[in-house]
Amino acid sequence: MAKAHRQISALDIGTTEVRLVVGEITDNDELEIVGIGKAPSRGVRKGVVVNIEATVDAIKRAVEEAEAMSGLTIDATYVNLSGAQMRGKNSRGVIAISRRNREITEEDVYRVIDQTRAISVPTDREIIDVLPQEFLVDGQDGIGNPIGFLGMRLEAAVHVVTSPITARQNVITSVNRASMMVVDTIINHVATAEATLSNDEKEYGAAVIDIGADITNLTIIHRDAVRHTAVFEMGGNHLTNDIAVGLRTPVPEAEKIKRSEGCALAMLMPDNERGRMVEVPSVGGRAPRMLSRQILCEILQPRAEEIFSHAADEIQRAGFEQQILSSVVLTGGGSLMDGIVEMAEQILDLPARHGIPNIAGGLTDDLDSPEYATVAGTLLYGFHKQMNQKKIHSLKDGAPKRGGFWSRFFG
User: Fold this and answer.
1) Sign of the four-CA dihedral 113, 114, 115, 116
2) Three-state SS string across 93-145, please?
């Protein structure tokens, strides 16, 4: 692999923070984290860029920090896409195999995937990802890679994700203005699942709930494929605002109180904690007040219940309550508060855990948090794609060459 291709970076442009992680591919084809950068985000709302200049400034600062740590120059990156207006739906396509030998080729896979894109999309939206679930050959389902099969009819089941055209373009524009090229994009739902789920969870069924600042993303994985996605317009900032309003304290102080003293489930607090007093700064220069931690929990619990109730309703509405057999995995900064895991188990009636990025090598301790699940998954996506392309280029002459499409769907 060329030296230029050994460097790889991933960018997550969040509502509260921009994160960039840079890695290197070792001679043993392993990924090693060599740099991490982050900066406060001021130009994003609900996962969408609303101020390009502010976003460019945050990206540049994150890049500078990662470059200083790694000693590398970062001029290209994989980028995560998110947003409140992202929508997903399942689609199917079917083609006939008319050749005499009936053998399915890569071109047939291209054609059937193109058929799945033939859905009604408003003029102001675009398809940003097509995620294969399975292929069917002459009615036989459960086929992951149909190339080489013999058949007369090829079908594909996919999950199609759409977003406003301007949302994706504003992300790419912001990255370009920060003097970087976008190698490829990946949606939040795929990135978080890639970084946090085990192989068993992907196969037997899991729900990933990524609680961000303004939005919460739900992803249902079953039989190693994305089966359903949804976005809810509520997240960690709503919990913070509830504290600010309920305790009449400035929002920055409410955020600090949430992180240090917050608990989403009152029953988890020991008796000696319920009555412990918490200092709450007041607005307008007034003297701070003292309130019990029990009151703080009573403010937070209803909103936490609401987030997971929305997830439970969506899972049931989509008809996947029986397919999630293994676990619920919680990621994002909003999942860090005490009691969140227990609240998820109570509302969803499933075992839950925090999603810690599954990356080995280098500065992994710095990524050991659900907050880094999305950017870690974006990096893993880029790593797997480049490894797949390396295998493609090493195929002997005459073997089928499989490019970007193949690496995205079968890499």
Assistant:
1) positive
2) EEEECCCCCCECCHHHHHHHHHHHCCCCCCCCEEEEEEEEEEEEECCEEEECC
How far apart CA 243 and CA 255 sit, in angstroms, is 8
Identify any residues that bridge with 289 across adjacent strands, giving them in sequence order. Answer: 280
pLDDT, mean of residues 319-329: 86
Alpha helix (H) ranges present in 50-152?
52-70, 106-116
The confidence score (pLDDT) of residue 404 equals 37
Is the pLDDT assigned to residue 397 strictly greater than 70?
A: no
Domains located in the chain, CATH noted: 87-165 (3.30.1490.110), 236-302 (3.90.640.10)
- Pairing verdict, β 76-81 and 7-13: parallel
Q: Which residue has the tokens 């005459």?
A: 398
Q: What is the CA radius of gyration of the chain?
A: 23
Residue 302 in 3-state DSSP? helix
pLDDT digits 0-9 by tens, 262-302: 999 988 888 777 778 889 988 877 888 898 889 999 999 99
Q: What is the mean pLDDT of the segment spanning 114-131?
A: 93
Picking from 29, 32, 27, the residue whose alpha carbon sits closest to that of residue 9 is 32
- The torsion of the CA quartet 185, 190, 195, 201, rounded to 10 degrees, works out to -160
Task: State the amino acid at position 165 in one-letter form.
Answer: I
